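Please decode residue identities from the backbone states below.
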């Protein structure tokens, strides 16, 4: 077994873990399988992360950041109409799901299996707090871009938007109906935008 160079070791192990999770599922993923995928010893994985839980946490952070970046790019390249901004952000997220369904399924498995597995204790809670953090940031950017305010608390709207995207994601992973997902996200964009108010009104 060869050891990886220190500067890129952590990220390369995260990428190896993601490949194993996408291919084999979270239930079949272990530090040994990840080490084999990365071409390193199991001890190297243990030294870097201390166990499977912290490595899975880094995988989640990597995937959530990618989702946030996709939506953010849409926010900064779209016209200033609030419905259009929200719609394009949701579409960018959906396109990312469609391009890498295995990654999205991995996130769902982390959520569900993590509620039962001792080695993933606390990860689903941290995962969803990170989701909400990203959603709050995106909604704040929408408000600035469209020069509006939201008529409900940021956390409440973020939770609502997250529930919508979770539902669309799960439905698409099951039926792979692109058109249905697009229609649902169109309705979601209109529903979220309905909570926009002019900054001049109270």
């Amino acid at each position: 077994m060869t050891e990886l160079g220190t500067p890129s070791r952590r990220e390369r192990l995260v990428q190896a873990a993601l490949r194993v999770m996408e291919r084999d599922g979270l239930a079949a993923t272990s530090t040994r399988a990840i080490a084999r995928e990365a071409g390193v010893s199991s001890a190297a994985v243990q030294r870097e992360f201390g166990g499977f839980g912290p490595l899975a946490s880094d995988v989640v952070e990597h995937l959530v950041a990618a989702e946030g970046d996709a939506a953010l790019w849409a926010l900064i390249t779209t016209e200033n109409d609030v419905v259009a901004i929200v719609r394009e952000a949701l579409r960018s997220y959906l396109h990312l799901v469609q391009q890498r369904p295995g990654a999205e399924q991995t996130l769902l498995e982390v959520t569900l299996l993590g509620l039962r597995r001792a080695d993933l204790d606390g990860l689903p809670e941290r995962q969803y707090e990170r989701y909400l953090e990203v959603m709050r940031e995106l909604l704040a950017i929408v408000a600035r871009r469209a020069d509006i305010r939201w008529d409900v608390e940021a956390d409440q709207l973020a939770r609502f938007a997250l529930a919508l995207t979770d539902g669309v994601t799960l439905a698409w992973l099951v039926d792979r109906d692109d058109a249905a997902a697009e229609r649902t996200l169109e309705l979601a964009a209109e529903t979220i935008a309905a909570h926009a108010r002019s900054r001049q009104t109270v």
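Observation: Residues 147 and 199 are 7 Å apart (CA to CA).
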